[in-house]
Design a protein that fits this description.
By secondary structure, this protein is of the alpha/beta class. The protein is 50% helix and 12% strand. The chain has a 5-stranded mixed beta sheet, sandwiched between helices. Strands 1-2-3 form a 3-stranded parallel beta sheet, sandwiched between helices.
């Protein structure tokens, strides 16, 4: 577990590991620059349970912090845990049993249950249930999925230390999506698997929402797929030499502006829907508003851009931001006049005339 300023959820996350039905483990916790009460919380648990190995390092990137934790691990298997989520009590037992019985598998993940900031289940949302439970489980299915998206939840993963060392761990250049890159490289040497059981609870909360981070995550995801494609063709891995993943470096990997903007639009809209389904309306509105100004969208279909404006307009209206809603609705109509019928139809439906 790597920790940096997550004291609100940290105790519950630590306890979910200490209370596992599988007991024979060390719990490596690395704090990489907390300024809140996180270090005090960790220390209080470390004095009571000798399985906790607490380390402090200077502030750094997430990938570097994860590498520090994994390199400190002495066990045969390494399980990943974030400091704001919850592992189910049987998680380690199920994953150890699976890896013991499948020596060719380098890493195993599992299904998740989505929860809100207070720990309440979000299973009643059809969208969120599909996202959290509908994941491929077999190696052949996972390899196909990796070509277009990351089919693993990082907090669900247990991997062989041998597999982690063989591919060189996380790469520092991946400031977002470092897990996707690691799994993609592991797949070139080992089989992969997902358990059907729910193995952890993923917490949705407003602090996760950042257009800047979603944008960078899209850049990183595209670079993962592009670099894997180049490796398969026998070319050198471009991520071994770049200092940062930018639109310019993506272009050198063969990712054009049109593909980049299409991916950004899909990522933003999906994340906003994700947050709306979780009931985080304020965060969704903020992200949607920032989304519109983050790109010129000239390579994206006008229908998609118009839908993006209408999505913002609907969120703004629900938050009594009526002028903002009217302006963005007008922008949607300017982009694609046919969408003018949608708000009219919604109004007619509300007054019972449609």
């Amino acid at each position: 577990m790597v920790v940096c300023n997550v004291d609100r959820f940290l105790a519950e996350a630590i306890e979910s590991i200490l209370e596992q039905t599988f007991r024979d483990f060390e719990f490596v916790i690395v704090d990489f620059g907390s300024t809140d009460k996180s270090k005090e919380i960790i220390s209080s648990y470390a004095t009571k349970d000798s399985r906790i190995k607490f380390h402090e390092i200077p502030h750094c990137g997430l990938a570097e912090a994860r590498n520090q934790g994994c390199l400190l691990a002495q066990g045969q298997y390494i399980a990943i845990m974030d400091a704001d989520d919850i592992s189910v009590l049987e998680r380690l037992a199920w994953e150890v049993e699976f890896l013991d019985g499948h020596p060719r598998v380098g890493m195993v993940g599992g299904a998740v249950e989505l929860i809100d900031a207070s720990g309440g289940s979000l299973a009643n949302s059809v969208l969120l249930s599909k996202l959290s439970l509908d994941r491929p489980v077999e190696d052949s299915e996972l390899r196909i999925a990796l070509l277009t998206y990351c089919p693993f939840w990082q907090d669900a993963v247990m991997m062989r230390r041998e597999a982690f060392n063989k591919v060189g761990g996380y790469r520092a250049v991946m400031v977002q999506g470092e897990d996707y890159d690691l799994w993609m490289r592991m797949a070139e040497h080992f089989e992969l698997a997902n358990l059907k059981q729910v193995v952890f609870k993923y917490r949705m909360h407003p602090h996760q929402v950042s257009v800047r981070k979603r944008k960078q995550q899209t850049f990183c995801s595209l670079s993962v797929r592009a670099s894997a494609k180049l490796r398969r063709s026998g070319s050198p891995d471009p991520l071994d030499s770049v200092q940062a993943i930018t639109p310019e470096s993506l272009k050198q990997m063969g990712v054009g502006e049109a593909e980049l903007q299409a991916s950004l639009a899909a990522e933003f809209r999906g994340w906003i829907q994700f947050m709306c389904a979780a009931g985080e309306w304020n965060a969704a509105l903020k992200a949607a508003s920032e989304m519109l100004g983050s790109c010129d969208w000239k390579f994206v279909e006008t229908r998609t851009v118009a839908d993006m404006y209408l999505q913002v307009a609907k969120l703004a209206w629900n938050h009594n931001r009526y002028w903002m809603s009217i302006v963005t609705t007008g922008q949607a109509i300017l982009k694609r006049p046919r969408v003018a019928g949608r708000p009219v139809r919604l109004l007619l439906e509300r007054i019972g005339l449609a």
